[in-house]
Design brief:
Length: about 240
């Protein structure tokens, strides 16, 4: 087997090792392909489809984060078909999800001239923020189901398995098993899920309180009091246990 694969991306001749993804090959050549669900620390699952490219001979657009290069492959990353697909995906996201805390996606929306009003009948994702722990807030109205948090909580990093997909179809969202409060789940509050979230659906509690206008001293008092109260609820036995 050859040690390198030769292909052409946007007219540029590129040689990369076998098993390289199209996304990695493009980036190595200085060609940027936009991504949302992709993250260096998590397994790629091609969920968002923003990274699609046009491969000569392929009937459909190809997700570059999971598709591997092949000898003689010819790829276009900015064809009309690719651009139209990305624009449509961004328009669908903007019409249903609160992207106010997703600056990278907002930049893509501007770059691709996506029209957030294209789908006026779209049903927005509505969810009351879940404030059930002293470390972070869960606001699933901002969640795009990229799966990063689920993966990093599982085999990709923590092996905690505190969260996963819940429900089906439009009602799908991220949740704890049996929808228990986060402190009652297997969560160890490592913060890795918050770190990989691209939309602010998971937000540090102190950042959220700052945005609400609380001073740093007030935040210290609020979070300290919350931790103390939760500790008491765990330590004090109920009447059934006494």
């Amino acid at each position: 087997m050859s040690d390198t694969i030769n292909l052409i991306i946007d007219g540029k001749q590129i040689s990369v090792p076998p098993s390289t993804t199209i996304l990695a090959a493009a980036r190595e050549a200085g060609i940027e392909i936009p991504t949302i669900c992709f993250h260096e620390a998590t397994t790629s699952n091609a969920l968002c489809r923003i990274c699609v490219v046009e491969v000569e001979g392929s009937r459909v657009l190809v997700p570059s984060c999971v598709a591997h290069v092949s000898e003689g492959m010819k790829v276009q990353t900015q064809s009309d078909r690719v651009t139209r697909s990305r624009r449509t995906i961004l328009e669908m996201l903007e019409s249903t999800v609160d992207l106010s805390d997703a600056p990278e996606i907002q930049t893509m929306i501007a770059e691709y001239k996506a029209d957030g009003e294209r789908f006026p009948q779209a049903k927005s994702r509505v969810s009351t923020p879940i404030d059930d722990n002293p470390m972070y807030l869960r606001d699933y109205a901002k969640c795009i189901l990229c799966w990063r948090c689920v993966q990093v909580c599982a085999e990709d990093a923590q092996y905690t398995y505190a969260i996963n997909f819940s429900s089906r179809g439009y009602d799908t969202q991220i949740s704890t098993f049996y929808e228990v409060p986060m402190p009652e789940s297997t969560c160890v509050f490592c913060g890795q899920c918050v770190a990989v979230c691209p939309t602010g659906a998971l937000k540090p509690k102190r950042q959220w309180l700052l945005e609400l206008g609380h001073t740093p001293d007030e935040i210290m008092d609020l979070t300290r009091s919350e931790r103390r109260n939760r500790r008491r609820r765990v330590e004090v036995p109920s009447n059934d246990q006494a």
